[in-house]
Design goal:
about 160 residues, alpha/beta, five-stranded mixed β-sheet, two-stranded parallel ribbon, 3 helices, 7 strands, about 40% helix, elongated
Length: about 160
């Protein structure tokens, strides 16, 4: 079975690489020091600091493994591939919620980078899927649990 491709913008790739570097270089040293200090306190069976440090170490190592897996299967969308005529991964799109007459702006990103609180929606989300390939002036319909929503594409800008 082929591993899932992780679509990333160049910006998203850089953030993950920086986080990985920080975890490997800075956080590993910090946690090693915490474990060393906790060990020096003696009996490990009742040492809460030691247990907490080991838990933190496990979390750090798990995150390192997760990022390495994402990067191993990363497919980076370059600015050249982003079409300003059609919505694609890396596009910033301004849309109008037809029912509520409300304008919204989103950046379409791969699922790894998605963060709706920062206006970054996944190309795999219902809205993201519906918008991919749309042009300015198009109206797309999105099926949700709450019913069908309609969005009109007002503007598309390269990421």
């Amino acid at each position: 079975m082929e591993a899932k491709r992780n679509i990333l913008t160049y910006e998203g790739l850089q953030k993950l690489e920086q986080e990985l570097e920080n975890l490997k270089v800075v956080k590993r040293k910090e946690i090693s020091q915490k474990i060393k200090e906790a060990r020096e306190q003696g009996d490990l069976s009742e040492n809460a600091e030691y247990d907490a440090a080991k838990d933190e170490q496990r979390d750090i190592e798990a995150r390192i493994e997760q990022i390495e897996g994402i990067l191993k299967n990363a497919e980076v969308v370059s600015d050249d591939e982003i079409d300003s005529d059609r919505v694609s991964v890396g596009s910033k799109v301004k849309i109008l919620d037809v029912e509520f007459d409300e304008e919204m702006e989103y950046k379409i990103v791969g699922s790894t980078e998605a963060n709706s609180l920062k206006g970054m929606i996944s190309n795999e989300s219902p809205v993201g899927k519906a918008l991919i390939g749309a042009s300015v002036g198009d109206t797309v319909k999105v099926e949700t649990e709450a019913g069908e929503l309609e969005y009109k594409v007002l503007d598309i800008v390269k990421g």
